[in-house]
Amino acid sequence: MNLISNIWNHPKTSVAGLLIAVASVAATLSQQGVSLGKAGTGTVVSLIGALATALLGLLAKDPEAASQPLGKPASQQAKLGAWAMIALLLPLPWMQGCTVQGVAQDIVNWTPALQSAVATVDSTGALLAPADAPVFFAATVGFDMASNLLVAQAKAYLANPSAGILAQLQTGVVTLQQQVNTATLQAVHIVNPASQQHSIAAIQGVGTIVSAILALVASISSKAAVAKMSAQTGVKLAAVEPYLDRSLSAQIVAAHYNEPVELARAQVAQAERMQIQAGF
User: Fold this and answer.
1) Which of 73, 221, 229, 250 could form a disulfide with 264 if both were Cys (CB 3.0 to 4.6 A apart)?
2) What is the C-alpha separation between 271 and 131, in angstroms, rounded?
């Protein structure tokens, strides 16, 4: 009876809890490759998850909040809004049922930031102690070629989203990701504290963007293709994770998508977890 009475006395909170549960289950099913069939350009699971988060967002902005008196009701509304935000943080690009064209465009949209980050790496040597610059240059020597190839592959896939070009894109993003991970581990051995800080920050700028592109590429790839991609990774994300500044990654993602840093921080954390679970 207490359960029924709680639902009756707090209907909005109960509905919010149900929607959060639906969104969470949909996210889990999508991660496991369960689709329950097609729904337009996405899947039934992604549609259910999107509807749950959309309804939760509307519920959190219920017009009744404006007419509520100060005190407990307002506090309950604030808590509801907070839970709504948590649930809205759950979906990532592969959970939203985006079209292949939309994901391809998102990948291409990241390429100017990638080129800028690589340019920053190229100029970072001037900030390092003379003895550290050669180590840094040796660690990052392949960034320019690999990033230029990835940009070309992304644009080619947007123009012609074929399986052959997607395979090239999968290889290209994993290649650059491995170079970034390897360079990070090499930069850790730079003894000068200032040089080490500059080096890792510059490399992470590239790595954050590559991680975002990797997540997008994985979202339009089959489970077999993702498994093949992860099998090509010798230096795993877990190995470099202790050296990453998540605040920096969140700032880069927030600036790109023009969103709050708090939202970007949660997205970055979830993307890392998913990539580690996938074997990257």
Assistant:
1) 250
2) 36
Say whether both 177 and 74 belong to one domain: no
Alpha-carbon distance 62 to 67, whole Å? 10
Distance CA(108)–CA(256), nearest Å, equals: 12
Q: What is the mean pLDDT of residues 234-261?
A: 94
Burial class (CB in 10 A: 0-12, 13-18, 19+), 230: middle
Phi, psi values for residue 122, rounded to 5°: -60, -30
User: Which tokens sit at 235?
Assistant: 């230096």
pLDDT at position 29 is 55
Report the distance separating Cα 137 and Cα 6, nearest Å. 63
Q: Looking at the structure, do residues 8 and 111 belong to the same domain, yes or no?
A: no
Q: Structural domain tally of the chain?
A: 2
137 and 253 fall within a common domain: yes
Question: Structure tokens of 257?
Answer: 């998508």
Are 133 and 79 part of one and the same domain? no
Domain endpoint, select from 94, 116, 132: 94
The boundaries of the domain holding residue 74 are 2-94
Model's pTM, two decimal places? 0.69
- 121 and 165 co-located in one domain: yes
C-alpha distance from residue 68 to each of 7, 61, 77 (Å):
20, 13, 9
Give the pLDDT of residue 271.
87
Are residue 82 and residue 105 in the same domain, yes or no? no
In this structure, are strands 42-43 and 38-39 parallel, antiparallel, or unpaired? antiparallel
